[in-house]
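Input record (one chain):
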Amino acid sequence: MPLSPDGTATPLFCVHASSGSAYSYLELARLLGADQPVYGIEAPGFDGDREPVRSLHALSAEYAETLREFQPDGDFLLLGWSLGGVIAFDMARRLTAAGARVRQVIMIDVSVPRVAELPPEKEIARRFLRDMLSAVGAPPTALDRVLAGQPDEATSEAIFLAAESSGALPAELDADLLAERYAVFRAHVEASFGFEVTEPHHGRVVHLIASESPLQYMRWDKVATGLTEHVVPGSHHSIWTGNSLLRLAGLTRAALAGAD
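The corresponding structure, as predicted from the sequence alone:
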């Protein structure tokens, strides 16, 4: 998905987060400058063309192969936020093992994954709704009241209908759209909870960490031997706005400039 395809520099490939959409990188791509080509990787199933993929190994392998076909003779620059960072890290390992050169992996606020039981459906739906509200710039305060009124065994469909009827959602987020997008999000949550990093990557990795994120879940130093870390003011979602986004873009530009 071309986000900012013009320019002569080595292209930067940005991997989707749990939503499956690469749209979150659009403003960052603009801030990286006219000479920096930027492409997004969108998930299978996001536009209804395929079934969502529930394996991070499968996503990583498919994306690595796609990039090698798209850019068979070039070096690679990878970036990913949240789940996208985990996928980008694994892609870097795969590409390197196949003989390609990965000049830089930029991870944005990425927790180290571990194999664990899936959270209850209500909790997955809560995470999804907060992500969706953040994406459209809507506050999540009313949503908390809606979720508090739902039983623990509530289905995602019931939660979305309750959220829509309560007025907690902006008009563009109705229950039907939420159900469609949730299928991809839930598949990626399942992929994340079934994956752990078992092999290190020895190339350059820059991790940009939100200041409000718990550092104990961000310890990539054991598997990323070329790791550099920076802190960006804000939360997992707010770093994509205002001055935090400007700092994010500045650190990304510096990382790309240092990826020789």
